[in-house]
Amino acid sequence: MPRVQEKAHVGAKELTAMTTVLVAIHVFLDYPAYVSKYGLEAAWMEPVVSGVAALILFLCAETMLRRYFPNDSIVEVVRGTLGPWVAACIALVFAAYLILITASIMREFMENVITSVLPATPILVVGGLFILTVGYMVHTGLEGIARVSTMAWPVLVLGVLALCLLTINYWHPYFLVPFWGKGPRQVLLGSANSAAIFLNVLLLCVVYPHAHNPRDLRRVGVISTVQTVILLTGFVLCYHMVFAPEETTKLASPMYAVARLIHIGHFIQRLESVFVFMWVSAAVVKLAITLWSAAYLLAAGFGWPTYRPLLPALCLLCLAISLLPHDVASAFDLHGDVLMRWGWVIAFAAPLLLLGAGILRRRRERARRA
Amino acid sequence: MNVPAWLARLFTIDDGVVEEPFSLLEDRPGQAQAGADTGAADGAGERNAETDKGGQGRDGESAGGAAPDAGDRAARADSPGQADSAREAGAEPGEVEVIRPIPLEAYIRQSAQASPEKSPEAGLEDKVPAEIGRVRKAVEQLFHADVNKDIVIREFIIQAESRGQAKDGKPAESQVPAEPRGHAVAGGPAASQEPTQDGSPAAGGGKKPWRALAVFVDGLVDKMTINTHILQPLMLLTAIADEPVERRLQTVSEALLPGNQVTKFEDWKDIVPGILSGCTAVFVDGSPGALIVETRGWEHRTVGLAQTETVVRGPHEGFTESFRANTGLVRAELRCKDLITEMMHVGRLAPTDVALMYVQGVVNPKLVDEVKRRIQAIDVDYLPDSGLLEQFIEDNPRLVVPNTLTTERPDRIAHMLMEGHVAIFVGNSPFAIAVPVVFWQLVHSPEDAYLRFPFGSFLRLLRWLALSLALLTPALYVSITNYHPEMIPTDLMLAIAGSREQVPFPVITEILMMEFSIELIREAGIRIPSVIGPTIGIVGALIIGQAAVQAGIVSPLLVIVIAVTALASFAIPNYNLAFGVRTMRFVFLAAAAVFGFYGLTLALCWAAARLAVQKSFGVPMLSPVAPRMDTSKDVFLRGPAFVMNQRPVFLQTQKAWREQPASRPWSKATMPNALRRFGDSVRSPRKGGKH
Amino acid sequence: MLSFVLLLIVPLWMLFYTVQFGRWLRRREGQNVMVWPVYGIGAVSFGLSVYVLWRMFLS
C-alpha cells in the first residue's frame, strides 16, 4: 500500500512549538473552569499531575517506536503488524475522535466569539470563516502548520504571561488555600479526566516519520510537555488568585474574564480585544493541527497518496458536527463529559496498546522464524 | 466553453495535488518519485524546445524573419495531440491568425520547405562566403539594407605591397580562382566592380589592393574608434606584404587592426549578433569569415546615483542602462576570481543578453542549475526588462510578496553574491535581480550593514514597525471604532466621537475615500511633469489635510491615521514589497470592516500560512524564522559585523563560514564571548574557523 | 428558504469534489487503496451538513 506522499520534514523547534501550541491553547478554552470543578483551590495541581502522567506515557511510546519501529508512524506500525484492515479501523477511530475534538472545540470557540466580540453575527458565518481558515492552513500541509505554530508560539507565551502578570493588582493568594482543595482524590480524578488534552503523545506518534531527525523527538516531547504544564499551571494559578474558588467553576471563558479585569492605569485597561488576536490565532493553529492529524491518519490508514482533496468534506463535517448540539450548554457538556472524560482512551491507551500489540506480534513472528 | 482555470480547479482533481515545489535541500529517498515525475515532464519540455529551435535555425529565424508565423506560434504551443488541425495550419503558413498547434515533425518539414523560397542565400546557418560581392549581398539581405538605413556597409581597399606579384608575374585576380571556395560563380555581381578593381592596382603601381567591407549599426558604435582604429590603419597605414588570400584575414587581425578585442568568426550566426551588439564586422575579399572588432559606444546614462534605494552612509552609485557597465560595477566591487558571469540570450526575434552571476565555490550548484533551467525555459520574441524576466522565473507570480529581490545597487548585489545568492542582469535594465530571497531581506536596507549595529538594528525595528503600520493601521482603526470601542480610553473615545460628529459617512467609506485620494496623489506624483511637481504637494495637502476636514467629510483623526499609513508605507525599502503592502492593506481593511478583530486575525493567519509555505527558488520565504534555523542574527535586528560570521543557512551554501569565529582576537571586549561560543580553538585564528 | 437553497451549494459542491477525488484515486492507484471511505466521509459530511442547514433554516 502506498504511503502518504507528504514530503514535509519538520525540525525539532517547529515540532516543539507545534505540540506546545496544541496543548497550551486550552488555557484559552474552558479547561481552567473544567479543572476547577474537580479541584477548586487545588486545581493548579491537575495540569501538573496529568502532565507528568502524559510525559511518562509519551516516553514509553517513544521508546517503543524508536526501538522497534524507526521511521514509522503509528498507522504504519499497526498495518505492518496487525494488517491493513485493523490499520484502517484504527485510523478511522483516531480520525473520528480528532474530528469530534475539532468540532467541539470549534463550537466552544464560536460561542465565545459570539458572546464576546461579534454578538450580532450568525454562528454559521463565524464558524464558516473559521473553518475556511483552518481548512486552508491544513491544505498547506504539515510544514505550513508547523511554521505558523513557530510564529504563534511566542504570541501564545507572551499572551499567557501578559494575562497572568497584568492582573497582578487583583491577586489574592489566600484564594489558593486550603492547599488540597476538594481533596487529593478529587484532584487525581480531575487530572485523569482532563488528561486528554495532552494530545501530544498521539500527535508525535503520527508525525514520527516527518521529523528531520526522529532522535530529537524525545527532547521535543519532554520540552513541549514541560512548557505546556508551566503555561497551564501558571494560568490556572493566576485565575484562582483572581477569582473566588466557586466563581472559577462557572465562568464560560476564563481567559476572557481575566482579560476584562486588566486595569493598570489609564491606558492599560480593557485589553480583552487584544487577546482576541492571540486567542483566535492560537485556536486556528490548534484546530489546524487536529484536523491535519485526522486527515493524515485517514490518508495513511486507507493508503491514499494525499489527503488534500478530502479537506472540503472534513471541514464541512467539522462545521456540521459543531453545530449539532442545540445550545451552548449541551455543547459544553458533550465536550466535558464525553470527549474529555474518555479522551484518554484514544490519547494514551490506544497508542500504547497498539504499539505493545505490534511489538508482541513482531517478537512472535521472529520467534517463529527462528 | 472555456472554463477559467481557477474554477476548473474547484471541480477537478489531477496529479497536481501530490506535486511538491523545488527545494534546495538534498532529496531524500522518499522524495525521488514525485521529483522524477515532474523532472521528466520538464525534461521533455526542454527537449521539445531544443529540437524546436534546431528546426527553426534552418530557415534563418531571427535575422531573415523568415519563420512562417503560423508555424512559429504553433511550434511553441507544442501539443502533439492535435495533429489534424495542425496540418491545416501547416498548409497555410502565411496566415498570421492560425495559432493552432502542429506536431514538431510536421513543423520541421514545413520550415525546411519554406526556407529555400524565403531566403535562398543568406541563412544564419551558412558560412560566410569568401568573395566580397557575395558577402555584401548577404549582409544587405540579412539586415534588409534596402529599407533599413541603420546598417552601414562601408567598402574600402586595403593596400598591400605585391611582392609576390613581382616573382611570378601573375595579376592579383589570378590568385582568386586558386582558393578553395567556388569563386567563379559569383561573376555576375562582381562583374560591375571589376573595372575599378582592375584600375586600382594599375594606379598604385606595385600595390596590390584587397577589397574589404566594414559593417556596423549606426548609433550603436563609437564612430571615432571606427575611423581611427579600423579605417585609418587599414586604408592609409598599411605597409605589409601581400599574403595568400586565405591568410589575409589573419594578417589584418594580427598586424593591422589595433582594436583591443578582435575575434574571427566564420558563421553568420556568430557575426550577426556581434554587429547587432555594436561591434564592427570587417570582411576581406578572398578570406571566408569576418573579424568582429569591439567598437561598442552607444549613448546611455552614465553611472549615477541610485534612484530608489538611497542611503546616507555607503556607496551612492546605482546600475545604469548599460549591460556591461552593470556587470562591471559588480566586478569592481567584488574582485574575486571565482566570481562567474555566465551569459545567456533570451528572445527569438531580438535576443536580449541575460547574465547570471555567482561566486563559484560559495553558491549552491543546485540553485545555479535551477535558475538556468528557468531562464532557458523562457521562449519569447523579445524580453525588454528585468521586470519581465522576474515574472517569467519567479515561483509564484500571483503572490503579492515578491519572490525575487530587485535592486539597483551594485554593492547590494556584491554582498548578496558573497552570501551565496545568484544575481541576474537583463539587457540594459538598470535593475538587477537577486535570488533566492527571504521575506526578511525585503525589509533590509544596505545601510543597516554599513551603520554600527545598534543603529542598524534601530532602523530595522523602525522599518518593521512601519511595515505593520502600513499594513494594519486603517484596518485597526476601522475595527476599533466599529467593533471594539471599549478598547479606547473613555476620553479618547469621546474625542473621536466628537470629531466624527460632523461626518455623515460610515468609517469605512471615510477611510476608503482618503485611501483613494492618497493613492491618487502617489500615482499623480510620479506621472506629473517635474515642472509642476511641487503643485501636487500643495494641492494634495490642501485637499486632504484641511479642506476635507473643514467640509466635514472626514474626521481629523482619520487624516492622521491615513497620513501615518502613507508615511509608513514609504519607509518600506523594497518597491515591490511596498506594492504588496499597499494592496494587502485593502484586504485587511475589508476583513476588519466586516468582522472586526476576528476577521483581521483570520486574514492574518491566512496570510501567515500562505507565506510560510511559499518558496523562493527552493528556499522557504520565512526562513530562518519558520522553519527555524540557527544562523547569524540578520532577521529582525542587525547583529554586530564581527559576529555575523556565518552565511545564511537557508541558502545551503558550499562554505558556511564567511568570517573567523573570533574576528577581533585582540579585543578584551568581544573575545570572551567568542571563546564561550566556539571554545578555545578560536585562539589560533587561521585554524579555528571551519574555513 | 432562499438561504437554505443558496447554502446548499456548498455541500453539493463538496460532494461533487469528494466524488471526483474518489474517482481520481481509483484511476491512479487502482486496487491498491480503499476508496470507499472517501465516498463514506463525503456522504456523512453531506448528510450532516444538509441536516444542520435544514434545522437552521427550515424547521
From TrEMBL, chain A:
Belongs to the amino acid-polyamine-organocation (APC) superfamily. Spore germination protein (SGP) (TC 2.A.3.9) family. It holds the Pfam family Spore_permease. PANTHER family: SPORE GERMINATION PROTEIN A2. GO terms for cellular component: membrane. Keywords: Germination, Membrane, Transmembrane, Transmembrane helix, Transport. This is Spore germination protein (Amino acid permease). Signal peptide: none annotated. The keyword Transport applies. It comes from Alicyclobacillus macrosporangiidus. It comes from the Bacteria. It is found in: Membrane.
Automatic annotation (TrEMBL), chain B:
It comes from the Bacteria. Residues 22-98, 162-206 are annotated as: Disordered. Residues 44-61 have a biased composition (Basic and acidic residues). Keywords: Membrane, Transmembrane, Transmembrane helix. The chain crosses the membrane at residues 422-443, 464-483, 528-547, 553-574, 586-609. GO terms for cellular component: membrane. InterPro entries: Spore_Ger (IPR004995), UPF0353/GerABKA_families (IPR050768). It holds the Pfam family GerA. One of its GO terms (biological process) is spore germination. The keyword Membrane applies. Residues 30-43 have a biased composition (Low complexity). Belongs to the GerABKA family. This is GerA spore germination protein. It comes from Alicyclobacillus macrosporangiidus. The lineage of its organism: Bacteria, Bacillati, Bacillota, Bacilli, Bacillales.
Automatic annotation (TrEMBL), chain C:
Keywords: Membrane, Transmembrane, Transmembrane helix. The chain crosses the membrane at residues 34-54. This is Uncharacterized protein. It comes from Alicyclobacillus macrosporangiidus. The lineage of its organism: Bacteria, Bacillati, Bacillota, Bacilli, Bacillales.
